[in-house]
Specification:
Layout: H1 2-31, H2 42-51, H3 53-87, H4 89-104, H5 111-118, H6 122-145, H7 150-158, H8 163-200, H9 207-216, H10 220-248
C-alpha cells in the first residue's frame, strides 16, 4: 500500500506541474491579450492537434523513429568506446582528442555531409542524433567503469578473475548509475538532434520539418503544436528512463528506502 501510494505521488506531481503550467500559460495569454503569432493559447494549440490527429501522429512517428534509432546507435557506440578507454590508457589518450573535437564541432554543419554520404533516408538523421548523444554517454560510462573500488579489484585479482569477469561483474554494475544519468539527458538530446536533422537533412516529414514549414507560413498553432508534442515525448521518455533506473538499480544506495 505504501509503495503504491509513493508510485502514485511520483506520477501525480509531474502531471500536476504540467497542468499548472498549461493553465498559467492560458491565463497569461488571455489576461495580457497576447497575439497568437507571438504566443498562441494552449487551448488553440490543443485544438489544432485534435483537428488533425493523423497529421501529427504520422509526423511524430517519423521524428521518434529517427530519435530512437539514433539514441540506440549513439549508446552502443559509446558503450564500446568507453569500455575500450576504461581498459587501456593508450586508447583513452588516443580517443580524447577526437571526442573533444566532436564535442566542439557544431553538429548541424555535419548534416549536409552525412546527407551526401548516406542519402535522404533515415540513416543520416539517425547518425546526427547519435552524434548528439555519443559524448554524454561516453563520458558518463567511462566515469562509471572507472569508479570500481580498488579493494574490490584487488579481491578479484586474488581469485584470478579474468578481465571479462571483472568487467561484467564489477565495472558494468558500477557504471549503471552514471549511464542512466546520461540517459535522462540523452532522451531529450535525441529529440533535439532529430529536429535539427530534419531542418538540414532534406526531410519531407517529421515534427521538425512541419515546425519549420509552419514558421514560414506563419501558422503559430501548428508550430507550437509540434513544440508541445516534442516536449510531451521528452517528458515521457525521461520518466520512462527514471522508472527503468529505479527498477534496475533497486540495490543501489541511492535507491534504497527504509520502511517507515
Amino acid at each position: 500500500m505504501i509503495r503504491a501510494s509513493r508510485t502514485v505521488s511520483r506520477l501525480v506531481a509531474p502531471v500536476a506541474a504540467v497542468l499548472g503550467l498549461l493553465i498559467l500559460w492560458e491565463l497569461v495569454t488571455r489576461i495580457f491579450n497576447i497575439r497568437a503569432i507571438a504566443l498562441p493559447r494552449p487551448s488553440d494549440v490543443l485544438a489544432a492537434i485534435a483537428a488533425d490527429p493523423g497529421f501529427f501522429a504520422s509526423n511524430t512517428w517519423v521524428t521518434l523513429a529517427e530519435a530512437v534509432l539514433g539514441l540506440l546507435i549513439g549508446f552502443l557506440a559509446a558503450a564500446v568506446a568507453a569500455s575500450l578507454m576504461a581498459h587501456s590508457s593508450l586508447v583513452e589518450r588516443l580517443s580524447w582528442p577526437g571526442i573533444i573535437i566532436l564535442q566542439s564541432t557544431p553538429i548541424v554543419v555535419l548534416a549536409p555531409i552525412l546527407l551526401i554520404w548516406f542519402g535522404f533516408g533515415i540513416w543520416p538523421k539517425a547518425l546526427i542524433v547519435a552524434l548528439f548523444v555519443f559524448v554524454p554517454f561516453t563520458t558518463n560510462m567511462l566515469t562509471g567503469l572507472r569508479s570500481v573500488d580498488q579493494d574490490l579489484l584487488n579481491v578479484a585479482g586474488s581469485v584470478d578473475a579474468s578481465r571479462f569477469e571483472v568487467y561484467r561483474r564489477l565495472r558494468i554494475p558500477h557504471a549503471l548509475a552514471d549511464t542512466f544519468a546520461a540517459g535522462r539527458i540523452c532522451v531529450s538530446l535525441s529529440l533535439v538532434g532529430a529536429v535539427i536533422s530534419e531542418f538540414y537533412g532534406g526531410s519531407t516529414s517529421g515534427l521538425g520539418y512541419q515546425f519549420r514549414r509552419a514558421l514560414v507560413s506563419i501558422n503559430p498553432d501548428t508550430a507550437w503544436a509540434c513544440i508541445v508534442i516534442l516536449a510531451g515525448f521528452g517528458i515521457v521518455g525521461t520518466f520512462a528512463v527514471l522508472a527503468l533506473e529505479s527498477r534496475v538499480l533497486h540495490w543501489h544506495p541511492a535507491y534504497r528506502r527504509e520502511n517507515p
